Amino acid sequence: MSSDDEILNRAMTLMQTIEPVLSKFDNGQASRQDQAIFNAWRAQVLNFLQDVLSPENNYIEAFENGVRTDRILREDVHRVGALPTAREYERAADIQTGFTILAALSQDIRAGYMHKIRTLITADVFTDFMEMATHLCEKDYLVSAAALSTAVLEDALRHVAQANDVAID
Fold this sequence. Notes:
mainly alpha; 6 helices
C-alpha cells in the first residue's frame, strides 16, 4: 500500500467516524457525549493534517478556522422532541466543514497535487543535506561527506523510482 493510499484510507476513516454524530447535531439529539466525540475527532483530524502536510498548509488553516471548539453545547434544559438549537446547527456546520475539507484533501491527493508539494519539500531537504556534505568535504571529513552524499542520493533515487512506479529490490 502506498503512502497516498494510507493517507486516503485515514481520511476516509475520519469522515466515517463523525457521520453518526453529524446526524445527531442536525436532528437536535446531540448529547455531551457527542460533543466529546466531536472534540476528539477534531483533535484526530488536526493531528492527521499536521502529520501529512506542511505546517503552513491551507488545509490546516481552513480546518482550524472552520471547525471550532469554542461553541459549547447547551444541555441545561431537557428538550425531548425540540428543534435543534442554533448552537447545534453551528456544530453540524463545523462537522460538515471538516468533512468537506477532508474530502477536498482526498481529491487533491488522488489528482496528484500533493506530490508536487512533497517533491518541493524533498528537494529542499536534499539541498540541505548536500550542503552539509559539501561543508564536511571542505573540512576534510571526506569519508563522512561521501557517506552522507551516498545516503542522500540513494534516497532521492528511491523517491524518483517510486514516483515512476519502478520496482526496487
